Amino acid sequence: MTARYALPPSRTLADITADALLADCGWCWGGWGNPCTTEPSGGMHLARFARACRRGLISDADMRVVRDAAPAVFTPGTVLDLEAAAA
Ligand SMILES: [Zn+2]
C-alpha cells in the first residue's frame, strides 16, 4: 500500500522550540519567552510543547519531531535539553 499524501517537510527543532517558547509552561509555569530550566543549559518541559500544540503554535508534525528528540520513556515533566537537541 502506498501513501496517498506526502508528509510536509519537518521543521527543525530550533524553529519548533522558538515557537513553543511563546506558550507558558503548564508544568513549571515558566513564563513566555524564557526556557523552563537554565542549569546546566536551557531546557523545556515536554508539557510546554504539548500546550504550544494545543494553542496552534506548533503542529502535530512538529510534535513528532519533539517526540523523536525526547528519551524513550518520558513524562510531561521531562526536560528536553535545547543545546543537546540543537546539536
Ligand atoms: Zn516548564
Brief descriptors of the model:
single chain; 87 residues; mainly alpha; binds zinc ion
Q: What structural class is derived from the secondary structure elements?
A: mainly alpha
The hetero compounds bound to this protein are: zinc ion
Helix percentage: 25-40%
The biggest sheet amounts to: 2 strands, antiparallel
Number-wise, the strands total 2
- Can you write the helix and strand succession as a string? HEHHEH
Count up the helices: 4
- As a whole number of angstroms, the C-alpha radius of gyration is 13 Å
**Molecular shape:** globular
Low-confidence stretches: none
For the terminal residues, how far apart are their CA atoms? Answer: 36 Å
Strand ordering within the main sheet: 1-2
Strand content: 5-15%
Average pLDDT number: 88
Quick structural gist:
With 87 residues, the protein is mainly α. The chain has four helices and two strands, in the order H-E-H-H-E-H.
